[in-house]
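The instructor's notes for this session suggest beginning with a concrete chain rather than abstract definitions. Hand out the sequence below and ask the class to guess, before any prediction is shown, which regions might be ordered.
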Amino acid sequence: MNRSDRGSKDAISGEGENPRDQRLRVHVDVPESSEGDRDTVVWEMTNIAPYLIPLAVGQLTLVSDRIVDASDFYPTLLELADSKPKATDVLDGISLMPQLSDQPGPTRDAAFFWYDPRPGWDKDRFRRHVFAVNRTHKLFRDGRLFRLGPQPLQETLVSSPTDEDKRNSQILRSVIERSMSGSTEPPLVNAFGDSVTE
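After discussion, reveal the predicted structure:
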């Protein structure tokens, strides 16, 4: 498994232990330790963690380096169950079945993240993170742009953007704006639920 692909999670399908076992099992492989700020490291590890999905569907074993988001699991499970979402459901994810069966289908070019675990015990070290990431860049809502390197956790703050940096920044900015559109964002609070400014 190539763990150096940035901004992606690898989906793997293969023959199950029992050909009649159609259960979907997901394993997220995350490094046990890493250097750097713990808050940042947690997010970086989440971004690079491969998703291992053993499926008893045929004999195909496929490794995909495409970007996968956790919201993709629900539509994937629906398709595995030969079911459809309710008419009132609004799905952020896309089914992984075309990728798992090596068939054409929708894919995603970027992933959006909104994260703030506060309030809660031991959450005082965390901050709100809103950003989008593709295979080469990571853009925070506050405008910070990073180039992603070939190794896990390798990123470089862009201080003098090239044309390619600017193009990716515009793409990721549109991902953030589209994802946040129509959403009511919770107020900023600290670990104890008190209002804060950041």
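Then share the key points. The beta strands are 11-13, 27-28, 51-52, 62-64, 111-115, 129-133, 137-140, 145-148, 155-157. DSSP finds four helices and nine strands in the chain.
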